[in-house]
Design brief:
The chain has 798 residues and is of the alpha+beta class. 35% of the residues lie in helices and 20% in strands. It contains 26 helices and 34 strands. Strands 8, 9, 10, 11, 12, 13 and 16 form a seven-stranded mixed sheet that branches. α3 packs across α4, α21 packs antiparallel against α22 and α23 runs antiparallel to α24. The protein is globular, with a radius of gyration of 33 Å.
Length: 798
């Protein structure tokens, strides 16, 4: 007897939707649980990464429903973004048309998986009813001086008349037209996230249930560092190059200075020098590299001498000034003092360019020798070649040298931050219009709140040429100044899509609320999110921006909490043949094809059993077969139910309830499934009654919901299985039950042993073969065959 998964899954999906089983309602005084997975970009097809992420979340949501919580488990779509514009150009359609088609397809596929979403709370960020509140938030930030404009350098494609992200510049050319990309200064909109840097750093301590890896990544990104800003005077001109360092203990070993290519003084220093042409070409070349590549430890560091020199203030030594790719303007002052003996990047660069080195810190156990050094020594030790600080422990020298330099006017002690303000301007169409106009008389004027939303024009042309389509829509650009009533020009930049996803979790609490971004009463009930689930790739930007927005809303007195997500789980990627699944590698497994062949419940079971949620999962078709066989095995139990289960089996069931409850709470779904398989094996060994079988079905239901719902009703229940309570174990029944097993040798009874009930066959064999009483009966002969009748008998043939 096999279950018809196609018929069953469609049946229960219709039932759940019709009965609004997963509709979240506000019940003051009840236990609430807000579970959220990071919402997807609507590409049209779900992939195995989606399946894994959303299955993990769905099991947790269903488990909490069974535990009696009011569960909110919403879903929506992060629907703005450049891919839709590219698809519109390629397919000769509109981004909105393309996006809504993709949302429809994706929603259908998500429903096929049986996920317990409250679809009444669905939001799509491309709808004006959503992005109106993006604009409202922007204006509130503008009122408080947190949204502002400034000039910054961008990658510019003159052919397409648009900016490009670093990742879109390939071999110095535009990824779309392949024409040469140029650096260009543009005035763009920023959000002053740096205003919140202290709170963003300090409040990491509140996140007790976040992975340490994510906390470390955020801490490093915010990048608070204590040090000293040293003033290096240029030889000849007396102009000063400020350099920030956290290692004043190494200042006596600084043998050259390195500037970022973008440093404002870089081109001035090379002007009129013999190497000017070569240096300008080098700067141009580096400007096309991404910061990730420039700062990578695996990439060879390149540089060029400026022909200028500076003076090290602590010893009046003249040192050369270089320009190199591994120094970035984004951190510190855009200039570093290079200490090759005590910084590995400086060491490699100095070796490559034959620059001088000087040891100024020796390890406690030995003295370093320049000729013998194969790498920089970056640890602590004792100062040498450091003037009056010789012999001082380097940690103490850090403080003493910094204080001395500040006293002598060589520099000033200060705190530096890596975090930079957030550039949100995009020269794109498919995003939230920035709600400001430019008036010749009044300057930058915000659009009044009453005039929101500023909607995207539906008749914008999509040709792939000439920059943002918004710049070609006259009726969009031409606006009336809200202040003076005169002619003004509307902003044609749109917001980065990270803006949309920085507060969507709050909108889910009241998605149809029309008076504000969200209803404070609903938010005070549901927020913060109890469990957030998503990929590690969002560890910094999305999570950091969401924390920033939450703190801003707290300042507006719209929320009374500081952090949006209490617990965070970052699931691992799905691999095939040890590679991340991707179209380019040709190793994609289509979820829809698996659902058609095995059913959604088999796919859910396999993807949870194959690996713990946080680790990578290697795809294996044999695992699917095993999962499908297990479900059919459980299905057949209903054919042979007894009047009453053995006491030993009931005890084993209570032990399983305890283990599975603990594993589900800890997201250890693979070991929970293993326990359910063991209980199933024990049922096959001794038979069972309806009560034990129903407990097994309830525990399996978060994992295989359609399958268990059908079994539940087949056994005579009228309401959904998800309206039943989660099983509770009896402490008294956890005392381990043993059974007596008869041991035969060649068919004759020789002795008996006591073994735990439900022990698997291999462990029984091991216990018997290790028993001293067996030796006289086999006399060292190897066992030809060992037959085990579970919980009853073992026969050894020699």
């Amino acid at each position: 007897m096999f279950y018809d998964f196609k018929k069953i899954e469609e049946k229960w999906q219709r039932y759940w939707e019709k009965s609004s089983l997963f509709k979240a309602n506000l019940h003051p005084g009840h236990k609430k649980y807000y579970l959220l997975e990071m919402f997807p970009y609507p590409s049209g097809k779900i992939h195995m990464g989606h399946v894994r992420n959303y299955t993990i979340g769905d099991v947790a949501a269903r488990f909490k429903i069974l535990e009696g919580f009011d569960v909110m488990h919403p879903m929506g779509f992060d629907a703005f973004g450049q891919p839709a514009e590219n698809a519109a150009i390629k397919n000769k359609t509109k981004p909105g048309t393309w996006t809504h088609k993709c949302i429809k397809e994706m929603k259908s596929e998500l429903k096929k998986m049986g996920f317990s979403y409250d679809w009444d709370r669905e939001v799509s960020t491309c709808e004006a009813s959503y992005y109106k509140w993006n604009q409202w938030i922007f204006l509130k930030m503008f009122e408080r001086g947190l949204a502002y404009r400034k000039v910054s350098a961008v990658n510019w494609c003159p052919e397409c008349a648009t900016t490009l992200a670093n990742e879109e510049v390939i071999d110095g050319g535009c990824w779309r037209c392949h024409k040469k990309v140029e650096p260009k200064d543009l005035e763009q909109w920023y959000l002053k996230i740096t205003e919140y840097k202290d709170r963003l750093l300090e409040d990491l301590a509140l996140l007790k249930h976040w992975p340490q890896r994510v906390l470390s990544m955020q801490e490093n990104w915010i990048g608070k560092s204590e040090g000293i800003e040293i003033r290096f005077k240029l030889k000849g001109s007396g102009a000063v190059i400020p350099v920030f360092t956290t290692r004043p203990d190494t200042i006596f070993g600084a043998t050259y200075i390195v500037l970022a290519c973008e440093h404002p003084i870089a081109k001035e220093l090379i002007g009129g020098k013999p190497q000017e042409k070569e240096a300008l070409e080098f700067i141009d070349k580096v400007s096309k590299k991404s910061n990730v590549v420039r700062s990578s430890s695996d990439v060879k560091k390149e540089g060029i001498f400026t022909g200028s020199y500076a003076v090290n203030p602590v010893n009046n030594e003249t040192i050369p000034v270089w320009i190199a790719d591994y120094v970035l303007m984004e951190y510190g002052t855009g200039a570093i003092m290079a200490v090759p003996t005590h910084d590995q990047r400086d060491f490699l660069f100095a070796k490559e360019h034959n620059l001088p080195m000087r040891i100024v810190i020796n390890p406690l156990a030995c003295s370093l020798e320049l000729k013998a050094m194969n790498e920089a020594y970056e640890g602590e030790g004792v100062q040498v070649n450091s003037g009056k600080f010789d012999g001082m422990p380097s940690p103490e020298a850090k403080k003493q040298i910094a204080a001395w330099m500040e006293k002598e006017g060589m520099g000033c002690i200060k705190t530096n931050w890596r975090l930079r303000d957030w550039l949100i301007s995009r020269q794109r169409y498919w995003g939230t219009p920035i709600p400001v106009v430019y008036c010749n008389k009044c300057g930058v004027v915000p659009v009044p709140f009453k005039d929101l939303p500023v909607e995207l024009p539906k008749d914008a042309p999509f040709t792939g040429e000439g920059g943002s389509p918004l710049t070609k829509v006259k009726k969009f650009i031409e606006a009336k100044c809200p202040k003076c009533g005169g002619k003004s020009r509307r902003e044609t930049d749109t917001m980065a899509t990270f803006f949309d996803s920085s507060w969507y979790f709050l909108r889910f609490c009241s998605p149809k609320f029309k008076e504000a971004p969200f209803d404070k009463n609903e938010v005070s009930y549901w927020m913060p999110v109890d469990q957030y689930i998503g990929g590690i790739e969002h560890a910094i930007l999305h999570l950091l921006y969401s924390r920033f927005f939450t703190k801003f809303f707290k300042d507006l007195k719209l929320v009374d909490f500081s952090e949006p997500f209490q617990c965070l789980l970052t699931q691992g990627m799905v691999l095939k043949d040890k590679e991340v699944m991707s179209k380019s590698k040709g190793n994609i497994v289509d979820p829809d094809s698996i659902i058609k062949k095995y059913g959604a419940d088999t796919l859910r079971l396999f993807i949870l059993f194959a690996a713990p949620p946080e680790t990578e999962l290697e795809w294996d078709d044999r695992g699917l077969e095993g999962a499908h066989k297990f479900l059919n095995r459980v299905w057949r139990i209903q054919e042979n139910l007894k009047e009453k289960a053995d006491t030993a089996l009931v005890r084993f069931m209570h032990k399983t309830i305890k283990k599975v409850s603990e594993d589900f709470s800890a997201f250890k779904f693979n070991t929970a499934i293993a326990s359910l398989m063991e209980l199933t094996n024990a049922i096959y060994q001794s038979g069972t009654d309806k009560e034990v079988f129903l407990k097994l079905i309830i525990m399996l239901s978060p994992i295989a919901p359609h399958f268990c719902e059908e079994l539940w009703h087949t056994l005579g229940n009228k309401e959904s299985i998800f309206k039943s309570p989660w099983p509770v174990y009896d402490h008294k029944m956890l005392i381990e039950e043993t059974v007596t097993v008869v041991i035969q040798v060649n068919g004759k009874v020789r002795f008996k042993i006591e073994v735990p009930f439900g022990i698997n066959q291999e462990n029984v064999k091991e216990l018997v073969l290790a028993d001293e009483r067996l030796k006289p009966w086999i006399q060292g002969k190897p066992a030809k065959n060992i037959v085990v009748i579970p919980n009853k008998l073992v026969n050894i043939v020699v």
